[in-house]
Design a protein that fits this description.
Number of helices: 9
Order of helices and strands: EHEHEHEHHHEHEHH
Structural class: alpha/beta
Number of strands: 6
Shape: globular
CATH class: Alpha Beta
CATH architecture: 3-Layer(aba) Sandwich
Distance between the termini: 11 Å
Strand order of the largest sheet: 2-1-3-4-5-6
Radius of gyration: 17 Å
Helix content: 40-55%
Mean pLDDT: 94
CATH topology: Rossmann fold
Number of domains: 1
CATH superfamily: Alpha/Beta hydrolase fold, catalytic domain
Largest sheet: 6 strands, parallel
Amino acid sequence: MPRTLTFLPGTMCDHRLWDPVRIRLDASYSTAYVPIEQQATREGMLALLASAADPVPLHLVAFSMGGYLALDFALGCPDRVASLITVAASAFGLTDTEKAERVRALELLAKHDYRGMPTSRLQQFVHPDHWTDPEVVDVIRAMDRDLGKATLVAQLKETSARESLAPQLWQLEIDILLIGADTDPFVPWSAIEDMTRLIPRAQSALAKDAGHMLPLEQSDWLAAKIVRFHEGVAG
């Protein structure tokens, strides 16, 4: 029977973030998707994840905000997660600078219509090699447009107060792969290395020529890493 991998998105993302990776997996894997973008609260996101983990533990693959939620869920419900891959995700919460940026963004959104992600902002998320790649930037813009202002406001509000999970990471007893990118300004490689040291059975992998939107930028590489990791995961 194929192993089922369950995918989680990040802020202002949906299943389209993962589609290029999912189609590159071989027949040894089936895939599922948890649409946390449909939930307006952090509690709702975690409840949706809990319902997906019933009745069998999940093999999770989670991106950015979804990666933080997956780590939080694995710590709170260790018997419901069989393995975990995080991509461009930090367990350390937001920096003061990131929190201040979110406050400013929410203030602007309260006063103005949302007209989509500016090009200058999009380019912060993507390696320069992919700035004009339609398979990357067009997908980002489409997700941003379709999810819209209400989703952005809810996600900024509900996920900004992220406490650091670092003091608890030693409790994780599952196989974990932590994946980062060489030019990700939001989750630097040093954060991935620090998490790897704190989690007993963690491995890490660095993607080259990629920014924060790694699943779209390096889908072939990422699919291969997922398969190689799961070749060593029992169950």
